Amino acid sequence: MTIAIFGNTFSPTVLDILNTIFSYFNHRNVQLIVDRQLLAYYQKNFAQPSNLKHTIDNDDFQADFSLSVGGDGTFLNTAARIGPKNIPIMGINTGRLGFLTDVSVDEIEKALDAIMHHQISYEERTLLKVEVSDGSKIDYPYVLNDVAILKQDSASMLNIITCLNDEAVHAYYSDGLIVSTPTGSTAYSMSAGGPLLVPQAQNIILTPVASHSLTVRPLVIPDDWKIDLEVRSRTGNYQLTLDGRTIILDQNKKVRISKAEYKIRVAKQLNHTFFDSLKSKLMWGLDKRN
Predict the structure, then answer these.
(1) Was domain 2-118 assigned CATH 3.40.50.10330?
(2) Does the predicted model carry a pTM greater than 0.85?
(3) Catalytic residue among 72, 102, 175, 228
(4) Which of 102, 125, 126, 99 shows the shortest CA–CA distance to 114?
């Protein structure tokens, strides 16, 4: 078995976790490949692990399994590196919330045992693809969480003209619009008042940010619909954010969002469910009267 390891390069906790992972696999029939930047961070404090097969320098690699060590942002970056390879990703949490990275520090060895004994469940997570009308290249045009149209350097609202399957449905006057997957329903969209969806839902959420209307609410649509967005801004440009990766576009450039042609496989320990995460991390359904 070959396991690819990715992680953030600023948290000291990551170093301790990497030591645990390297030690665990040291005498097992597992080959490790590690992101070069992560390994360089590790080697500032420790020697190179003996069971390292090679480093990962770009996206040209293969593995049977992958570990993402960090928070949800690290997991999203790992998903971008994995791309369409269909390699399962298990997240080990060192962040504050860790909704995607649901293996806690004190569960690491238990989770690694589960990997070795094939006691893992897998969830197929939908991604969205983003295209710009003039054909402008986006380095990685896919998102696991969300796409956000936001204003830039202005206190003025945006006018976001929205078409669904070529039908003009609404012009949002707001600070922005979030287009979210079910996975992203617990992220930015939720903060803006969007609904929660189970990861298996075949839907997309459109959630306005600070809409200047009392009657405009988040909208849930089928995930095979096409979304076309045309933005009008007082500054003449706007901000397009893809899972935290930001680019600035001229308002003459339209955006199309559609379901991606591949999915990301999220690996979880058995008996770790979406509702467990909702309750433990977001305090969903908490009733202090009980």
Answers:
(1) yes
(2) yes
(3) 72
(4) 102
Q: For 161-216, how does the pLDDT look when each residue is reduced to its tens digit (9 = 90+)? A: 999 999 999 999 999 999 999 999 999 999 999 999 999 999 999 999 999 998 99
Q: Options 3.40.980.10, 1.20.120.140, 3.30.420.40, 2.60.200.30; which CATH number does 128-260 get?
A: 2.60.200.30
Any catalytic annotation for residue 72?
Answer: yes
